[in-house]
């Protein structure tokens, strides 16, 4: 399987190389691997195998010495500048590429990460917050003062308008208030019940088993029947995405299964206070498709401008 960022022959692919540099910058700035993966998936990017990104695939790619042009043998670097590098924009700047690789290894493989499981830092990444001007997904980005924020990115591969930026914390608090209030409706609570419990999980597991069986059968057909490679890869890509989607839904069903049996305003508010960000996000996605963040409606106002935010409910 080819390395992401390169052709089968080992030549850099400019679009994927730019994406790798963007991912590297995000990781060094402190964004977690799973959050980077969520942004990639929301933007429609796939791995070199045609599958969805995960935190593990992001981490494995970014610490790969190949990106800095280094050849390894049994985990040890045996030759520098053996391949074209993609971590620095200048193809000849191997020194910068090697320095970036070192920082990535220290960041992603450091003892702090190994001893402490990573936790999500943003509630609304992955398409839950969109630019109200151009419709692009808002991406996580800290300010110069290290405060969490969400922005519409202009640069590749996002190509947004770049005109929207909002502080993440007050936006997330506003979303929490609206989402919890939404569960005052009996119809919405009934919808929530469809997403939790053993019956819902069993349905998802059965669908997942069917998709995995189709993938297995497709592989057998490719070996036994003369399928064209392009046809096989296209079918495999569709089934792999369906499998990844079902796995994500099954994970979400587990994330909200800790909800109290009797859903009331009080019990849900208590649950929200103690739930981690993954479980909160799973609950949000039951009722919220996304929020649109527009331009400021109160020029000069430095607090949270609720008039900028429009809710699109499921």
From TrEMBL:
<feature type="domain" description="Recombinase">
    <location>
        <begin position="1"/>
        <end position="114"/>
    </location>
</feature>
<keyword id="KW-0238">DNA-binding</keyword>
<keyword id="KW-0233">DNA recombination</keyword>
<dbReference type="InterPro" id="IPR038109">
    <property type="entry name" value="DNA_bind_recomb_sf"/>
</dbReference>
<dbReference type="InterPro" id="IPR025827">
    <property type="entry name" value="Zn_ribbon_recom_dom"/>
</dbReference>
<keyword id="KW-0175">Coiled coil</keyword>
<protein>
    <submittedName>
        <fullName>Recombinase family protein</fullName>
    </submittedName>
</protein>
<dbReference type="Pfam" id="PF13408">
    <property type="entry name" value="Zn_ribbon_recom"/>
</dbReference>
<feature type="coiled-coil region">
    <location>
        <begin position="194"/>
        <end position="221"/>
    </location>
</feature>
<dbReference type="InterPro" id="IPR011109">
    <property type="entry name" value="DNA_bind_recombinase_dom"/>
</dbReference>
<dbReference type="Pfam" id="PF07508">
    <property type="entry name" value="Recombinase"/>
</dbReference>
<dbReference type="InterPro" id="IPR050639">
    <property type="entry name" value="SSR_resolvase"/>
</dbReference>
């Amino acid at each position: 399987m080819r390395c992401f960022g390169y052709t089968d022959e080992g030549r850099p692919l400019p679009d994927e190389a730019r994406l790798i540099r963007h991912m590297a910058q995000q990781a060094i700035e402190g964004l977690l691997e799973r959050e980077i993966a969520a942004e990639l998936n929301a933007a429609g990017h796939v791995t070199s195998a045609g599958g969805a990104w995960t935190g593990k695939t992001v981490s494995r790619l970014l610490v790969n010495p190949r990106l800095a042009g280094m050849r390894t043998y049994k985990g040890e670097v045996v030759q520098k500048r053996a391949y074209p590098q993609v971590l620095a924009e200048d193809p000849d700047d191997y020194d910068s590429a090697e320095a970036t690789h070192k920082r990535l290894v220290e960041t992603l493989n450091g003892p702090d990460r190994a001893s402490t499981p990573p936790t999500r830092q943003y509630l609304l990444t992955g398409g839950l917050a969109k630019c109200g001007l151009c419709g692009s997904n808002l991406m996580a980005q800290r300010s110069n003062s290290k405060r969490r924020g969400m922005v519409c990115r202009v640069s590749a591969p996002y190509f947004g308008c770049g005109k929207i930026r909002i502080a993440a914390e007050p936006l997330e608090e506003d979303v929490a208030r609206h989402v919890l209030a939404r569960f005052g409706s009996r119809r919405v609570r009934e919808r929530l019940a469809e997403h939790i419990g053993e019956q819902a999980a069993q349905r998802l597991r059965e669908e997942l088993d069917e998709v995995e069986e189709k993938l297995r059968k497709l592989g057998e057909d490719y070996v036994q029947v003369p399928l064209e490679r392009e046809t096989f890869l296209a079918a495999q890509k569709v089934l792999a995405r369906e499998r990844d989607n079902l796995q994500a839904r099954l994970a979400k069903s587990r994330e909200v299964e800790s909800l109290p049996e009797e859903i009331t305003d009080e019990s849900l508010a208590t649950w929200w206070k103690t739930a981690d960000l993954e479980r909160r996000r799973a609950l949000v996605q039951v009722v919220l498709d996304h929020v649109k963040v527009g331009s400021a409606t109160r020029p000069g106002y430095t607090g949270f401008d609720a008039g900028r935010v429009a809710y699109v409910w499921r």
